[in-house]
Amino acid sequence: MRDEVDRFPSGAALAALLGDWSAGEGPLYRKLADALAAAAEDGSLVTGQRLPSERELARVLAVSRATVVAAYEALRDRGVVDRRQGSGTRVNGHRKVPRSDGRVRGGRGTAIVQRLIDGPGELISLGCAADAGVPEVAEALRAVADDEITGLLADPGYHPRGLPALREAIADHYTRQGVPTSPAEILVTSGAHQALVLLAEVYLRGAATAVVEAPSWSPCLDIFRQCGVDLTPVGLDDEGVDPRALASVLAESTPGLLYVMPTFHNPTGVLMSAARRRQVAELATRHGVAVVEDNAYAGHALAADEAALPMPLAAFAPRGSEVLTVESLKGVWAGLRVGWVRGPVGIIERCARRKAMADLGSPLIEQAVAARLLPRLDALSRRRSAVQREHCAELERLLARRLPEWSWRTPDGGSSLWVALPEGHSADVFAQLALRHGVEIVPGSAMDPTGRHDRHFRIPFLLAPEVLAALVDRLADAWTELRRHGPHEDLPLRPVV
């Protein structure tokens, strides 16, 4: 039983933890040993924890077994690990336990967040799918400086629910979409991410499970895992989350919440149909489960006719249901860090209390800028979507020319292609070779715990054309290396006596 409790979750999870360990000069086994030693030092590897077998780790890192054996041997020589026949390789139990490093144990999304902290360096990182800000942000900022700054400075500056003018603008935004909303039903947050954190704290405290789509975006999944719940994944089809599978799951248990991304799902780009939204809302209401709809990519339509987009899922909810709509200005500029939650007044009040404990309210100047942008949001989204269509088409053209064996579905919207490698190939393994060619990818195993998308990964297309071209060239080189040569042989030189 101790092995099962103390064993590191998987080789793939360890590979995600190590990040771009293979960068820089020197033999791979030495760089791997250095990365593992650093992980043990900062507490990412727990004292006494058994590391994956040499064979498993070699497979996911796309190196020879000899490379892993040599790395483990080097760690033993340094006193970082113990190696015993029948017991495997364990982090040394005599090492000092460091303070928490802030990571979510078992979470794959933390590697993506860590990349934001570290910066991309020379890598082309596919962990972030966000574009530069639109010029209207600067215009709105100048207008706030000219017309509103004196009034804002006269305000004490603490509005945990959000700047009243912005809450009113957001409420009007939903009312125009056919979802009548009052400012009391709106809470402004520091991006959609904080909105999900607050909702998880409200709904998952004491809960056993949360139902999520499979695949889903791993940092969001880590938010729920941090609350100590198990995740119950439900698959997708071309209209959104599978209603039959969802009905079965809800009939068997009472989860704390159901989390869906109906408007341009991340990472697949699927747009949930109006009929499917109604089905989901009615199922959740029947079983007494709150729905969190994350529409952070609502302004990223790729179809020419955006007027045909269905209303938010909240518009289809029967009386008495709880649907929380999360959205943000990511499509205008993620750097504003302005998001919000729309929901029942009582839930908004609970979230506001937690928001006040976290930061006493988001910065007012950014909110004032957002309030000026909200009335223009539809027009801004249409203009940006036209550019995104061109980027998506260019990425598809490059992939079709250089990597015709790969497959994907042209997304309805969003910011990425959800690409599948040919059958029999692992995106975890390919991720390691891609790193050595200067590309950081997020493999499907990080987004779907069921294993059904282990050969998939996400490629954002919100990059400059020249970066897209360089990206595909690097991916093609990595793919050629994998197909022709397989794992890299990196045998340390040892004297023969």
UniProtKB/TrEMBL annotation:
Tell whether ATP-binding is among the UniProt keywords: no
Q: Does the keyword Zinc-finger apply?
A: no
Give the start-end ranges of region Disordered.
84-105
Mind telling me which InterPro entries this protein's record contains? Aminotransferase_I/II_large (IPR004839), HTH_trans_reg/aminotransferase (IPR051446), PyrdxlP-dep_Trfase (IPR015424), PyrdxlP-dep_Trfase_major (IPR015421), PyrdxlP-dep_Trfase_small (IPR015422), Tscrpt_reg_HTH_GntR (IPR000524), WH-like_DNA-bd_sf (IPR036388), WH_DNA-bd_sf (IPR036390)
The GO terms this record gives for MF are: DNA binding; DNA-binding transcription factor activity; pyridoxal phosphate binding
Entry-linked PROSITE patterns? HTH_GNTR
Ranges of residues in domain HTH gntR-type: 26-94
Q: List keywords of the entry alphabetically.
A: DNA-binding, Pyridoxal phosphate, Transcription, Transcription regulation
| Family statement | In the C-terminal section; belongs to the class-I pyridoxal-phosphate-dependent aminotransferase family.
Name recorded for this polypeptide:
GntR family transcriptional regulator
Q: Supply the source organism for this entry.
A: Saccharomonospora piscinae
Q: Give the taxonomic lineage as stored in the record.
A: Bacteria, Bacillati, Actinomycetota, Actinomycetes, Pseudonocardiales
